[in-house]
Design a protein that fits this description.
- It is a single chain.
- With 338 residues, this protein is an alpha/beta fold.
- The chain has two domains: 151 residues, 3-Layer(aba) Sandwich (Isopropylmalate Dehydrogenase); 164 residues, Isopropylmalate Dehydrogenase (3-Layer(aba) Sandwich), CATH 3.40.718.
- It is built from twelve helices and eleven strands.
- The chain has an eleven-stranded mixed beta sheet, sandwiched between helices.
- It starts with a strand and ends with a helix.
Length: 338
Amino acid sequence: MIIAVDAAGGDYAPGEIIKGVVQAVEESDVEIALVGKKSLIHVTAARQIKNNSRISIIEASQVIEAEEHPMRAVMSKPDSSIVVGINLLKEGKAQAFVSAGNTGALFGAAFLKLGLIEGIERPAICAILDITGSTPVLLIDAGANADCKPHFLVQFAEMGNAFAKRVIGLDTPRVGLLSNGSEDGKGNRLVVDSHELLKNANLNFVGNIEANDLPKGKVDVVVTDGFTGNVVLKTLEGLGEAVQNFKHLWRDVSKAGHVHGSALLGSVEIDSWARKLDFREYGGACLLGVSGNVIKAHGRSRANAIKNAIILARQTAEGNIYAIIKKEEQNEQHNSSN
């Protein structure tokens, strides 16, 4: 299996990207196509990749910077690492593509080059939240669509359901709709109308959930619009950073001799929660609904996050998520027409 990886995207490219690639190859059976400027990659990590037969370099002479307008950059830079990587996916030369680069450009290139699965009206970001202590919770949409229609949310739920089955391994994922109250009828017009549609969908829909239900393990798939989902995701990210800072403060206090005995247990629990809320642990989010496996890694990803994003890409490709969503959408269209 070949995973294409954007060597030029992210705050710490290409050094941390290459380190993550090397770690992924050492820990799994993937092959990597590093996409970027060959000369820069060789200067950065010639020793790390020279004798590794499972890492190849694909030349991409251009880079889409974080501050560039996404669609203009995609159109004006056909040899950018993002566009070249997406083309590898389109041509079947890679089974998934991972990038920590410009989010809008990545989604724009995926939309233009790969296209949407027939019947899917909007792609959605599926973020994996490991915050329950048991199985992860999927949040969809986590930022691709700020303005949504009710039937978009039904499609998000169907895609998240397929992902939960094939990648997480759940037989009947519990799907919940994010609202400001658990009662039927609570929420804005989008939530109320979406609730009615989801009740009649072929899903294990358990109703509305509130934001404070996310860590309680009440559902496996949380459905919302991209604006709300991104706010939730960024809030959890900020909380994770706060926990990380508190963890370091706790350790400093402990080293100073002010904490003893059973307080060490608290340190262990804090460390565990810090890891669960740390984006570097889960690596990335999947863009579902496009005709290929696309993984968006965090822009501040270092080596461990890139490694985990590659592993997620492999799991997504092995689960054949794109084909499963395509098949289920075709079945849904067939049932609707009868």
